[in-house]
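Protein record
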Amino acid sequence: MMNPIERMIREDECRRMTGLGRTKRWQMERAGTFPKRRMISNKISGYLESEVLDWIHSRPVSDYRAPKDALSARGIAS
């Protein structure tokens, strides 16, 4: 059952929140790795904000480290 104050978000906001384009999200929806859209009206769909936020928080933390020369070129000491 949906929370009565649950917020629906549309395409542009979902893109801003996730950084993923429409096609990539569609592929991930089909693969079951991204929340599915919900019908808002006959021709309009959106996502439950809480499901998108849960997906964002479930993503692993990156252990990427910038090369030292890239940091020193920006004046950032390591």
In short: The longest helix spans residues 22-31.
